[in-house]
Design goal:
single chain, two-stranded antiparallel sheet, mainly alpha, Rx N-terminal domain-containing protein, 4 strands
């Protein structure tokens, strides 16, 4: 007798997706040291950019009596947060780098290395993005004039002579 129906299942797409996933995860381990060095360099560049911008803001505030713009204030606070986060990751990096083996493409603790590699990669992109957005032509502007309120005045009593003299 013959087969009434047959099921054909191709495993190629499943295998391809699994290998892509594994390769993508492994890239975090293989690129860990390079990404760490890149993060250190980018964080140093962000620190320099923040320092230069703060100098410009201080000059504008102190010498020209201007008020810093809100977008500059926001950028400075985000830069400070990113620098602190990057510094924390860099401090944690030696223990993760020690776990690498086989030329840096394998780890004795793969899950933690992949997780740490993802953090480094994400933080590197955030720092690069922050650096790109850190160029301001104007950092401060004149503060709004305080609103003046009219105060009622009373006629002077006994000082008319001095008042008229003035």
């Amino acid at each position: 007798m013959g087969n009434f129906f047959s099921i054909s299942l191709s495993l190629d797409p499943i295998i391809t997706r699994c290998s892509d996933c594994a390769t993508g995860q492994a890239s975090y381990i293989c690129n860990l040291e390079d990404d760490l060095h890149a993060l250190q360099a980018e964080a140093a560049g962000l620190k320099d950019l923040r320092s230069d911008l703060m100098s410009r803001v201080r000059i504008a505030e102190d010498e020209e009596q201007l008020k810093r713009l809100n977008q500059v204030e926001g950028w400075l606070s985000r830069a400070e947060t990113l620098i602190n986060d990057a510094d924390q990751l860099i401090v944690q990096s030696p223990q993760h780098v020690e776990n690498l083996c086989m030329g840096g493409c394998c780890s004795t603790h793969p899950r933690s290395s992949i997780k740490f590699g993802k953090k480094i990669s994400k933080k590197l992109l955030e720092v690069k993005d922050q650096k790109e957005n850190g160029h301001f032509s104007v950092v401060a502007s004149k503060p709004p004039l305080p609103s003046a309120t009219e105060r009622p005045s009373e006629p002077t009593v006994g000082l008319e002579f001095n008042f008229n003299k003035v």
